[in-house]
From TrEMBL:
The keyword Transit peptide does not apply. One of its GO terms (cellular component) is cytosol. Keywords: Amino-acid biosynthesis, Aromatic amino acid biosynthesis, NADP, Oxidoreductase. Residues 114-194 form the Quinate/shikimate 5-dehydrogenase/glutamyl-tRNA reductase domain. Belongs to the shikimate dehydrogenase family. NADP(+) binds at residues 126-130, 150-155, 214, 236. This is Shikimate dehydrogenase (NADP(+)). InterPro entries: Aminoacid_DH-like_N_sf (IPR046346), NAD(P)-bd_dom_sf (IPR036291), SDH_C (IPR041121), Shikimate_DH (IPR011342), Shikimate_DH-bd_N (IPR013708), Shikimate_DH_fam (IPR022893), Shikm_DH/Glu-tRNA_Rdtase (IPR006151). GO terms for biological process: amino acid biosynthetic process; aromatic amino acid family biosynthetic process; chorismate biosynthetic process; shikimate metabolic process. The gene is aroE. Coiled coil: none annotated.
Length: 266
């Protein structure tokens, strides 16, 4: 029987998830249908209940419902607990399970680029939901230090304080975004500055070997500045593919190779 999946959000029509999941299904020979689901802003819980009542197997959750999904779950994975947001739902024994696959998606994307996380010194710009979602997987992948830099310092400090109990092997700290300096293996832009067309300034006293921009499909002054320094760069399309593959593997028990789907970008 065809397994039913969907991504639920508002708005939802521009989601690339159906295209990605159908490509994974074709590559792995799994019979599934994956659709877009528009939930009313005040009707998320009823919408997902209807999906599972009708025999749906798994749901991805996107803006603005990831925190609501987290609140509704009966069982959360550790990385969803740290993220305080859920992007992958399924039902088991009458219970609603939730995971957050964004962080593992990023780790898999970095691995596909050949960028090493073992003992890496990582700087993340931004302290919003995306940063919270990637902290535990980056630490578990071996990062020795993660510095979170944010325009609003208190938000970065709070994030570090919240995440610290879950992470023992990685040194965490918070700094102000306008006080960037030092030497890092990897810098990740997890601000939404690129989405709003605003420019981030990377000062000369900040040094890094690789630069990853979580946003994709938009011009990025962050990536422009990194490219001018001659370091390897990447936008966030590979993370999008990575988080989708991780959700697909949770539901279907098979994990397609991320590298095989990067050509879907254009
Ligand atoms: P949030 O709204 O939760 O957080 C936004 C962050 O950006 C905050 O730290 C905010 O700082 C900072 N910020 C916003 N504008 C500026 C600016 N002009 N200058 C400096 N800092 C700024 O967003 P998310 O964490 O959910 O998303 C962040 C980015 O990650 C987005 O570009 C999103 O598209 C991308 N993303 C990509 C994914 C992928 O699969 N590739 C998955 C998830 C997210 P402050 O706290 O001071 O307001």
């Amino acid at each position: 029987m065809t397994r039913q999946f969907a991504v639920v959000g508002n708005p939802i029509e521009h989601s690339r998830s159906p295209e990605l999941h159908h490509a994974f299904a074709k590559a792995t020979g799994i019979d599934l249908n994956y659709s877009n689901r528009l939930a009313p802003l005040d009707g998320f819980a009823a919408n997902i209940q209807e999906f599972f009542n009708q025999g749906g197997t798994g749901l991805n959750v996107t803006v603005p419902f990831k925190e609501q999904a987290y609140q509704l779950c009966d069982v959360l994975t550790p990385r969803a607990q740290v993220a305080r947001a859920v992007n992958t739902l399924w039902q088991q024994d009458g219970k609603l399970y939730g995971d957050n696959t964004d962080g593992q998606g990023l780790v898999d994307a970095l691995n596909a680029l050949g960028w090493k996380l073992e003992q890496a010194n990582v700087l993340i710009l931004g302290a919003g939901g995306a940063t919270r979602g990637v902290m535990l997987p980056l630490a578990q992948a071996g990062a020795s230090q993660i510095v979170v830099a944010n325009r609003t310092l208190s938000r970065a400090q709070q994030l570090v304080e919240d995440v610290q109990p879950f992470i023992t092997t990685t040194t965490l700290s918070a700094i102000r975004l306008d006080q960037l300096s030092g030497q890092f293996d990897l810098i990740i832009n997890a601000t939404s500055a690129s989405l709003s067309g605003e420019a981030l300034q990377l000062p000369p006293e900040l040094h890094f070997q690789q630069a990853y921009e979580m946003a994709y499909g938009k011009p990025s002054s962050f990536l422009d500045q990194a490219a001018q320094r001659g370091v390897p760069i990447s936008d966030g399309f590979s993370m999008l593919v990575g988080q989708a593959i991780e959700a697909f593997s949770i539901w279907n028990g098979v994990k397609p190779a991320l590298e095989d789907f990067l050509s879907l970008k254009s």
